[in-house]
Amino acid sequence: MIKTILMALLSVLLLTGVVFLQIFFSKKDNKWLGLILPAITLIISIMATLGLILYTPVATLTEQGYKTILNTVQIPKVATIFKMFYIFFIYNIPTAILLGVYFACRGKLKRTREIEKMSVQDLE
């Protein structure tokens, strides 16, 4: 019971930390810095999808008389393709959230810069 509560609390703290780190990176002048965490989560989602494909068992054919085994290339079934899309979609939810934070912070930063630019022009 206590272990579950501690794990949940640790998970919430970790997710909150990642969001604050994303906000910190997104507010920096370097626009590429804010794309680091979304790129990492995108790479993880691609690896998970490829893991599903690469570790799907390969079908084998056996001939009873000669005891030979022929490995055949397995054609992805419709269920496997749906699993691929499902895993890719689920693993990209954090990517979408982090990109949303990035674009929100960059939009606010751009708006602030434009207001500063207009106020400087008004002073001239």
How much helix is in the residues? over 70%
What strand line-up does the widest sheet have?
Answer: 1-2
**What does the average pLDDT come to?**
84
Figure out the total of helices.
4
Summing up helix and strand content along with how strands pair, one would put the structural category as mainly alpha
Tell me, briefly, the overall form.
elongated
Strand content: under 5%
Compute the CA-based radius of gyration.
Answer: 24 Å
Low-pLDDT stretches are none
Summarize the biggest pleated sheet.
2 strands, antiparallel
Distance between the termini: 66 Å
What does this 3D model show about the protein?
The chain has four helices and two strands; from the N terminus they run ααββαα. The chain has 124 residues and is mostly helical. Strands 1-2 form a two-stranded antiparallel sheet. Helix 2 packs antiparallel against helix 4. The longest helix has 31 residues. The mean pLDDT is 84.
Brief account:
By secondary structure, the protein is mainly alpha-helical. It is built from four helices and two strands.
Which SSEs are present, and which pair or pack?
Layout: H1 2-26, H2 36-54, E1 60-62, E2 69-71, H3 78-91, H4 93-123
Antiparallel strand pairs: 1-2
Helix pairs in contact: 1-4, 2-3, 2-4
Structure keywords:
124 residues, mainly alpha, single chain, two-stranded antiparallel ribbon
